[in-house]
């Protein structure tokens, strides 16, 4: 007699609709919602631990698990405190920082990045990866710029979409952050950002809009700061009106950890999931507060029970959380993921190689000639040659299974033919959030002298320095305190260059920095926090195995005061107390004035004066008639440069594009990067609305060039930048090979945001289409007439 086996699985027809994988997500969501109690609906919208929120256990709907990103899957954190859980299997592949991805100017790399990091998040059983970040580069002091994609909204928009699509193809949701205007860490928890609608729509919202409309992002993270006297994580205009209204976002809005501040606003103004309340999101604990004490905890449930919350709001929040779960945890089509595979390491290395930027290469010292190094001494100097740069930095910290340092890679590549030595040169201390251990100057001087003495005897010096993930460096929770490289590196680089002319200078950072030693060094390589394969990728470039093809995603200026956020004074960065608002700052100097100047006239006049002095249109200006007041007890920052962010500002100021010119205020412009080969551009041609140009590799090695198209309105009714990036294409060319690349103009590329009409407008007239190799390296122009 046969044994009785377990009952056969119920057919799809017998399953409740919400458990039927054959039905659409929306059908399943609505069925689940109809079965839930009020208590279950309200409980879904706030945390149950540091990084998870509850599902509906009665219905078999699972919990939601989040993890910090976006450069890899963070190590596990304890259920109810910030300590590392010390698991043995919570390692990851550390992918390059997003500044590197942006510097690749290659959407294919963004797709590869998202797919691979998503596989690791899936393997680690995460529902949501907290990234990518697309806040714009407004000040080089921002401690989190390394997590973002540069100063240009178009570049960030093009790069973020394939990242999202690659990540979410694994059934893991992105959480695009930090929405929006969280462009500094100083005062981040409360600073009230004052910005014109034109700048908001034309610059700061654009990458997020692309993430939602083109990337179909499943969740967004609300930022810490305020806008119009409301915290952004529950902001009526930004969340209800723009994100969910104008853009039709159907995903969930998740707070940054500790960014919720008000129950009524959280209920009414678009928040869907509250995380980390009463903490700083990194170290501080919610002493005396439990999860039910959250703003959307018991207070929300009680209001809902008392009829103070419309059921349409309760259902909308629960519906969005259900939708997020059905797209991730209850998605029947997602795979199982994988961890730290060779494919992941290969992707990490390829992305890093594509993003490294060659800034200077006098006398063609690079690529290194291996034959000339046989039997010679190579001295590697600098703490970043050995330091683990995946550690620290705040929430982006990673527990990489392996991190190949530059020194290790150089030793592996050249150690068999040359003698490779190392000298630290400087010391920075351990990475600690919120604290800095200062190394005594005497100790730094001793390390510097030792390195310089060794450099005198070496045949080649490779300097690997820059910033790191320490507090007040490239780190969350605090901005940099100076534009210069810290730890006496300026003195060290200068003395090394004097001691040995054969020096390769490599700076690793997520930000620009002062370069008083630039004229002394023959080579300069800009590298980034490149993760697990950082050393190998760098050595690939130095050796010439790979031809550098990265270009800068932000402008590198001579001094801090050259950036508009700093040139216009403390009111533009980092902000001033609201009760000091009657004091205004003009070109960095304090001048007493009445509050009415701040509210209406002053910044209009200031921007017009800038425009007048630099020969741009002054008929109108988007800062006119805006209220720049702020609530007492907080800081306010005014984006006084308005639409002139990054290269838009330097274009307007008339930068001539050569770092050798002492009068220039830019060292290296946006979109700049050298190659080991040379490229020749033909004369651009226009036919209808399509612009074409030929590009030829005139050198002896294969290489990749990034062709950039900028659009400028010759005569507008409002102030507009001289030109704005509207298209780019990265092409590979063999020696002697020529390709024709094209750009088709569409009406969106000609538009500005009209604040009066609250609409995008393209005015009739003539536009200049610029073909360039950087924002200043113009290869040709054509005219286009909009009718």
Instruction: Describe the main β-sheet briefly.
Output: 6 strands, mixed
Tell me the β content. Answer: 15-25%
**Span of the ends, CA to CA:** 86 Å
Overall pLDDT level:
91
In percent, how helical is the residue content?
25-40%
- Model regions low in confidence, pLDDT < 50 over at least 5 residues: 1-9, 582-604, 606-629, 655-663
Please count the beta strands (DSSP E, at least 2 residues each): 32
By DSSP (H or I, 4+ residues per run), the number of helices equals 20
From the helix content, strand content and strand pairing, which structural class follows? alpha/beta
A few lines on this structure:
The protein has 20 helices and 32 strands. With 787 residues, the chain is α/β, with parallel strands linked by helices. Helix 1 (25-35) packs across helix 11.
Description:
By secondary structure, the protein is of the alpha/beta class. Helix content is about 25%, strand content about 20%. The chain contains 20 helices and 32 strands. It has a 6-stranded mixed beta sheet with strand order 11-16-15-14-12-13, sandwiched between helices. It has a 5-stranded mixed beta sheet with strand order 9-8-6-21-18, with no helix packed on it. A 4-stranded mixed beta sheet has the order 1-2-3-4. β19 (about 585) and β20 form a beta hairpin. The termini are far apart. The model is unreliable at about 1-10, about 580-605, about 605-630 and about 655-665 (pLDDT under 50).
């Amino acid at each position: 007699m046969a044994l009785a086996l377990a009952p056969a699985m119920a057919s799809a027809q017998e399953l409740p609709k919400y458990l039927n994988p054959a039905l659409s997500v929306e059908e399943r969501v609505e069925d689940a919602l109809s079965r839930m109690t009020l208590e279950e609906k309200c409980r879904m919208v706030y945390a149950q631990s540091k990084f998870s929120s509850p599902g509906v256990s009665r219905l078999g709907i699972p919990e939601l698990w989040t993890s910090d990103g976006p450069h890899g899957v963070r190590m596990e954190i304890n259920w109810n405190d910030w300590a590392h859980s010390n698991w043995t299997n919570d390692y990851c592949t550390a992918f390059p920082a997003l500044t590197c991805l942006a510097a690749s100017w290659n959407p294919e790399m963004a797709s590869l990045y998202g797919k691979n990091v998503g596989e690791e998040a899936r393997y680690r059983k995460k529902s949501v990866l907290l990234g990518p970040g697309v806040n714009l580069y407004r000040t080089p002091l921002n401690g989190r710029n390394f997590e973002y994609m540069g100063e240009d909204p178009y570049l960030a928009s093009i790069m973020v979409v394939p990242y999202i699509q690659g990540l979410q193809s694994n059934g893991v949701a992105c959480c695009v952050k930090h929405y929006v205007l969280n462009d500094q860490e100083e005062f981040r928890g409360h600073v009230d950002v004052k910005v014109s609608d034109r700048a908001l729509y034309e610059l700061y919202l654009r990458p997020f809009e692309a993430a939602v409309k083109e990337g179909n992002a499943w969740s967004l993270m609300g930022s810490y700061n305020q806008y119009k006297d409301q915290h952004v994580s529950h902001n009526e205009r930004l969340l209800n009106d723009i994100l969910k209204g104008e853009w039709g976002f159907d995903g969930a809005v998740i707070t940054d950890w500790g960014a919720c501040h008000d129950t009524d606003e959280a209920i009414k103004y678009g928040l869907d999931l509250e995380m980390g309340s009463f903490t700083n999101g990194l170290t501080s604990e919610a002493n005396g507060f439990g999860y039910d004490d959250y703003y959307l905890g018991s207070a929300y449930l009680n209001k809902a029970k008392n009829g103070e919350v419309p059921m349409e709001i309760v259902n909308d929040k629960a519906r969005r959380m259900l939708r997020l779960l059905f797209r991730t945890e209850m998605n029947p089509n997602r795979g199982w993921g994988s961890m730290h595979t060779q494919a992941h390491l290969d992707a990490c290395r390829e992305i890093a190689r594509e993003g490294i930027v060659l800034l200077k290469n006098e006398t063609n010292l690079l690529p290194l000639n291996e034959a000339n190094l046989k039997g010679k001494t190579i001295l590697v100097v600098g703490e970043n040659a050995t330091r683990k740069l995946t550690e620290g930095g705040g929430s982006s910290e990673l527990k990489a299974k392996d991190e190949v340092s530059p020194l290790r890679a150089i030793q592996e590549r050249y150690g068999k033919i040359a003698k490779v030595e190392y000298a630290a040169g400087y010391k920075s201390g351990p990475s600690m959030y919120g604290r800095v251990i200062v190394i005594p100057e005497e100790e730094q001087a001793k390390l510097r002298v030792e390195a310089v003495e060794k450099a005198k005897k070496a045949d080649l010096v490779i300097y690997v320095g820059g910033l790191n993930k320490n507090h007040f460096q490239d780190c969350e929770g605090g901005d940099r305190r100076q534009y210069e490289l810290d730890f006496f590196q300026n003195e060290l680089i200068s003395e090394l260059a004097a001691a040995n002319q054969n020096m390769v200078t490599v700076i690793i950072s997520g930000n620009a920095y002062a370069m008083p030693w630039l004229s002394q060094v023959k080579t300069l390589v800009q590298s980034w926090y490149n993760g697990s394969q950082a050393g190998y990728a760098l050595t690939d470039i130095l050796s010439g195995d790979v031809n550098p093809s990265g270009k800068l995603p932000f402008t590198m200026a001579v001094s801090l005061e050259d950036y508009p956020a700093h040139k216009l004074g403390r009111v533009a960065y980092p902000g001033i107390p609201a009760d000091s608002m009657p004091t205004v700052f003009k070109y960095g100097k304090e001048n007493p004035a009445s509050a009415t100047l701040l509210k209406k006239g002053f910044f209009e006049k200031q921007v017009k004066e800038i425009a007048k002095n630099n020969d741009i249109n002054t008929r109108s200006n988007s800062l006119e008639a805006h209220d720049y007041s702020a609530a007492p007890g907080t800081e306010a920052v005014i984006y006084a440069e308005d639409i002139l962010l990054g290269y838009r500002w330097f274009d307007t100021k008339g930068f001539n594009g050569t770092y050798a010119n002492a009068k220039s205020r830019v060292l290296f412009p946006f979109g700049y990067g050298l190659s080991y080969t040379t490229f020749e551009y033909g004369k651009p041609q226009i036919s209808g609305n399509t612009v074409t140009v030929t590009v030829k590799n005139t050198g002896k090695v294969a290489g990749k060039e990034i062709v950039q198209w900028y659009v400028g309105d010759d005569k507008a009714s409002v102030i507009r930048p001289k030109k704005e990036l509207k298209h780019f294409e990265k092409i590979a060319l063999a020696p002697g090979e020529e390709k024709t690349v094209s750009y088709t103009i569409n009406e969106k590329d000609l538009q500005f945001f009209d604040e009066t009409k609250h609409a995008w407008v393209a005015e009739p007239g003539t536009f200049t289409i610029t073909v360039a190799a950087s924002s200043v390296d113009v290869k040709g122009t054509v005219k286009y007439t909009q009718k």
